[in-house]
Amino acid sequence: MVLPALCRLTCREGHSGPTYESLQTVFDRKPFRPAVNLSNPTITNISFTLYAVLGVNEKTQILTTFLWLRLYWHHEFLEWDPEQCDGVTKISLPVRDLWTPDIIVYEFVDDDVSQNCPYVYVNHTGHIRYDRMLRIVSACNLEIFTFPFDIQNCSLTFGSYMHTIKDVRVSPALPFEEISRNSMRYLQASGEWELVVIEGNAGILKFGIDEWDIITFWVVIKRRPILYVVNLLIPSSFLMIIDILSFYLPPHSVDRASFKMTLILGYTVFLLIMNDLLPSTANGTPIIGIYFSVCLALMVISLLETVIITNVLHHNSMKYRQVPRWVRVLVLGYLARIICYTKPEEESNGPQNKCDSTGPWVTQPSAPTSTPDPAPVLPPITNGHGTQITLLPSAIPELTQICQDVSLMRTHLTSLQKESEMQDQWCHVGYVMDFLLFRIYLLLIILYAVVIICMWCIWFSQ
Asked: What count of other Cβ atoms lies within 10 Å of the Cβ of residue 168?
């Protein structure tokens, strides 16, 4: 549509560009939307370049970004003929003297401290380009469950604040793919965040009977996890490996319990230090925090297991208790087969409680045919082989004492052998329980490691 002459800027001969008087007429109309026919909405084209991701605050659910925002719209009162204006097709005017669309970011949650550009570019057809640098502090629903391998999807919704769809319409100035490529090309100072893609769609916001035209850009960013892998996962893995190796210490050793207590103390200090690096929200806890808690719980369980095994190996065996039958069936039978525990073969080198036939006793000879005073017949004494021997009268006190001592020694050795057998049974019960918990502990650690590695691979593939 060709505008009437009253709506076009005038130029003077010998001057470059429209005259000051004609521009001042436009400046006086600043409060009014620049449309000849107010029933026609002003179309505003929007594009931006994501220049930096300044910060992500998981606790307050806030994303801070820095954008190069560019707005285009048509000012129907800023048109002139270049042939009458010495060939001038573009001029710059102060933005404070012109009507500008009130485009805002709906997710904005802080004061706008961005530096405004004081000028806009206007070409002879009335199309205006307004560039400004915008620091946006926007609300975003941050998902931290997969931290530090998380990918965030935050929206930036641009639209007019006061003008409805009848007055101002918005549309993207460039295709979304080009906006995404430009942002990846110029993205600087991203720190731990990396841009994945920028997508968008246009829509209508309804509130009551009024409707606002909006355009939503989805900024997808992912975290670079190397900082947290080096500072969190690797130290925790070292401590867990040391705790796993501590199972190879003898379970009946007191040093094993003290070693585990020292390890738990060190892991607790590690958790206190890493609390400053872990994000925390009221909505949930990252899986890495659950991983650390489970690792600490496993360390405590391993310490309790050491205490229980020590009690089994020492307390029960010192009381000469027999291993209950259900314990032998359940632990030494089924659990030992499940964990592939084999009882080591032991050589039976028990003491030989056999009395020798040599010594101060001799076999009773045959009685003489004629003896005036025969010696009294002593009761027979049986040696270790069951052979009865008869003692001479001169050896009665010494041999009696020796036989009593041998009998006491045999009884003592039998008691020691019985105690050794009970201790051996309790020892194998403790070893089976120790091996079982060690394998469960190792299985859980491997499962958690597989989960972390899979999450890292998913992050890397995206």
From this structure: 22
DSSP 8-state assignment for residue 386: S
Contact at 8 Å (CB) between 85 and 17? Answer: yes
Using one digit for the tens of pLDDT, what is the confidence trace for 174-201? 999 999 999 988 886 567 888 999 999 9
Q: Secondary structure of the chain: what % helix, strand, coil (to 5)? A: 40, 25, 35
Q: What is the CATH number of domain 228-343+433-461?
A: 1.20.58.390
CA distance 315 to 331: 18
Q: Are 218 and 200 in contact (CB under 8 A)?
A: yes
Domain borders along the chain are 5-224, 228-343+433-461
Q: Computed from CA positions of residues 439, 441, 445, 450, in that sequence, does the dihedral angle turn out positive or negative?
A: positive
Structure tokens at 350: 């028990």
On whether the CB atoms of residues 43 and 74 are closer than 8 A, the answer is yes
Interacting residues of 302 by C-beta distance below 8 A, sequence separation 6+: 243, 246, 247, 260, 437, 441
d(CA 149, CA 456): 6
Q: Which helix (H) or strand (E) holds 47?
A: strand 42-57
**Closest residue by Cα to residue 445 from 272, 299, 332, 314:** 299
Residue 394 CB burial class (10 angstroms; 0-12, 13-18, ≥19):
exposed
CATH value of 5-224 in 3.30.200.20, 3.60.15.10, 3.20.20.70, 2.70.170.10: 2.70.170.10
Tell me the two tokens of residue 345. Answer: 């073969």
Beta partners for 69?
48, 132
Question: CA–CA separation, 447 vs 454, rounded Å?
Answer: 11
Q: Could you report the per-residue pLDDT of 343-352, keeping only the tens digit for each?
A: 655 434 444 3
- The model's pTM: 0.69
Chain length of the chain = 462
The answer on pLDDT for 369 being more than 50 is no
